[in-house]
Write the structure tokens for this entry.
Amino acid sequence: MSAPTRGAVVVTGASRGIGAAIAADLAGRGFRVVGLSRSGSAPRASASPAT
């Protein structure tokens, strides 16, 4: 059973660096995270999708 969701957050710059670390931390704490990036690289999942 997964932990209850605490809310939703939007993290800009989530493809790497500090933004990726913040997104991963918030996801680990039970937040639903929407990560945004302006880079042209393909998006990648850093956490499991909510079910």
About this structure: The two ends are 10 Å apart (CA to CA). The CA atoms of residues 2 and 51 lie 9 Å apart.
